[in-house]
What does this fold into?
Amino acid sequence: MQIALHLGLHCTNADMLAKALARNAPALRKSGTLVPPPARYRPLLSDAVERLGDATPAPDARAVLLDAILAEDQATAPRRLVLSHENLLAGPRGVFEYARPYPRTEQRLRAVGGLLGPNVALYFGLRNPATFLPAMLARSGAPSLDALTGGMPPAELSWAPVIAAARAAVPDAPITVWCMEDTALIWGEVVRAVAGLPSGTKIAGAFDMLASVMAPEGMRRFRAYLAQNPTITEAQKRRVMTTFLDKYADESAMEQVLDLPGWTDETVALLSDLYDADIEDIAQINGVTVLAP
It folds into this structure.
């Protein structure tokens, strides 16, 4: 059995992905892919990883954990199990423990590999630090950015070490990442990747992210265009999406507040440039696939 584990990151629409997977769960079940309700497995997985720590799991640990997760689906023998748990590597207040991002990644994913076995694939949504940091500050409730990050300078926030730590923990696991900034154009491909579906497979909600940043009139015209051109490729669809976004983007939905004390336009530009370079470095890590428009 293949196990797809989506790990966030925080503030990258993880809940929206979980809902998209749940929306497609009945259809996925017919092809042997099980998407259990998050409430059933998240506490089990968190507790198992926390208890294991750096220890070696017992020989029957995998069977016990999977039996508990699949307890209500014993009649089915799934080909693929899809799990999503953005707090498995850290809760919102622990993202910058030790003044670096997700410092427990390697330890926790080593435990995951031991508990879930060799057929695990990992999925991460990433986000530009220029928007990630303000979003995390709001979500965590920390009194200041320094309190949130332990004083880590924003320019030192890099995702490459997090992905490299995941690679070190489970060296044989395929890792797929994407940038949140691209999801309006690739949301369908993100959902298909986590669900284990071939590119272009029809799914419910493939354009939900696009709809969240496009005016209703633009979405009506976009869907009408697709209905009139049912055979266009995924690459062609993305070009069409870009064209419609250029004309019908909902600016209020796309607007992001970046007014942290001391930040300037230059700060945002620097963080964005570093992020672009970071993604290029991540793409060079062995076994990592970057989904992009």
Summary: The first helix runs from residue 14 to 23. The radius of gyration is 20 Å. The CA atoms of residues 4 and 27 lie 17 Å apart.
